[in-house]
Structures are given as structure tokens and as C-alpha cells.
């Protein structure tokens, strides 16, 4: 089975570097920073350098990548430990967004908690709690009896994703919800290359990087992390040592669902809450997990950023030059196909 921290890193890092360089050049070509698509010669291109467009694309890509990681991290660790691909993960992201929206905008809660920052914090905490509770219920009530039946697990998690979608329709309807009030970090702004950015977006990127480091430290430096990594390699041996592997399964699955719900909560102030979030982020997260290498945590982190930056670059190129925004949705799968042609095990997966 593929380890959470897989080997053969040198080739993987070379591949990642090549992809990043390619994305950088492609972004420069298509955002107007180096207008090489024109016909006036290279000397004229230097006068068209526009750091603003490039900074917008890069920041949007990092933001998207961090949100994808919050969904993909749970997918990767759960698959590495339990061989379960949780198709309901995108549903937890969607539920987190709706809960954060509701807590921040409900008139009764506004009257009781006038401070917008506190309402956002309460909404995020409630989203995490609900995500954890739903995840624990799914693992203990439905998945635990089916660990020896992978196909049944896929069907169950897919069914739960549909159930979450229908429950959301029942509670909030089908109309998207837009975040209508500003608060705290969402009010602040800074300038980069003449472009204005919300401080809140930097906050989300920082949260994503913080979670990458925190989970890596958890896996590498703590007893539970050692148990998880050992369980990935040989769960039967870990159980023979007297460790309750089932309890570890429940804890890891619950944590993965809670982190996905947190991702939805922190995304809600700029993405709003809509039914499409479930499928949109699930597809991107699955692409990141497979691209990074099934079961490889570090691969998932790197691949999430690659997918996010790719989507940002393709979104700008698709709208600006092809007038086809659909390429943004297709880009994770296109990137995945290209990488798997060269490296079938993914960037950080074992051959």
C-alpha cells in the first residue's frame, strides 16, 4: 500500500518543479504579463509586463488550492489508512458553507451576537462540530460493517453525498446564498502590483498552510500519528500490538470530515453557499489525491496547490481567449491525465 509519506521524492520534486515552471510560463503567456501571443516581437513584449494580472491569478490559485486541500486531506489520509474513498467529502464542505452562512446572517443570531467576527467564529466552530458528528455517524453506523467490501463503501458514501444534498435543499432551498455583510478581516485590503486584495483571502491561505503543517506534525511527531502511519502499512500488525485500530479509524474519518466542513465555512464569505460546491470541490479533491499519489499526504498537499493554480490560470485563459469558462472545471482532470501518462502512481506515489 502507498505510504502517507511516500519515497522516491527526488523524481517527484523534479516533476512538481517542471509543472510549476510550465504553469508560470503559461500564466505569463495568457494573463498579459508577457504578451507572447502577439505578433510585435519580443522587444515590444517587455513593455506589456503586467504584474497585476499575474498576482491575481497566483493568489486566486493559492486560495483555490488551499480550499481543495481542506477537502482532499481527509480523503487522502482516510484512503491511506482505511482504503475508503469518501465521496461524501464534498457534501461536508457544502454543509459547512451553509452553516457558516446561516449563523452569520440569521436575524435572531445577529440580535444575540452583534459582533460579525464572533458570529463567523461561531459559525466555523458549529460547522466543524456538525461535520465531525456526521462523519463519526457515517463511519460507525454505515462503513464499519463494510470494511471488507470496497464497492459497497463507494456506494454508501455516494448515497450519503446525495442524502446531504437533498437535506440541504430541504433546509435552505435551491437558490445560492451570497455573503452580504463584511466583517473584520473581510473589511481589510492590501495592494500588490497595483491590484487590491482582501486580507481575508490571505487569512484563508494562511489557514490552509497552517493545517498542512499541523497535520504533518501530527503524523510525524505524535503517538497517534505513528499509529496512523503504522496502520497505513499494516493495520493487522498494529491491532496485534493491542491498539484499538477501529477507534483510530473513527478518529481519522471524523477529523477528515470536520476539516472539510471547516473548509466550507472559511470559503463561504467569498464563495457563498450553493449546492454546486459539493460536486465542484469533490472532483477537484479527488483529482488532487490521485495526482499526488493515493495515500500520500504530502503528495496531496502539493497536488492541491497545483490543481488550484492550474484552475486559476485556465480560468483566466479560457474566459479571456477561448470564451469557454468550462475549461476551468475540466482542468483538474486534464492535468491529472497528463501527469498519470508520465507517472501512473502519481507525483509522490510508489511505483
Automatic annotation (TrEMBL):
InterPro entries: ABC_transp_permease (IPR001851), BCAA_transport_permease (IPR052157). One of its GO terms (molecular function) is transmembrane transporter activity. One of its GO terms (cellular component) is plasma membrane. Pfam families: BPD_transp_2 (PF02653). It is found in: Cell membrane. It is a multi-pass membrane protein. The chain crosses the membrane at residues 12-29, 62-85, 120-138, 150-172, 199-219, 247-267. One of its GO terms (biological process) is amino acid transport. Keywords: Amino-acid transport, Cell membrane, Membrane, Transmembrane, Transmembrane helix, Transport. Coiled coil: none annotated. The keyword Disulfide bond does not apply. The keyword Cell membrane applies. Belongs to the binding-protein-dependent transport system permease family. LivHM subfamily. PANTHER family: ABC TRANSPORTER ATP-BINDING PROTEIN, BRANCHED-CHAIN AMINO ACID TRANSPORT SYSTEM PERMEASE PROTEIN LIVH. This is Branched-chain amino acid ABC transporter permease.
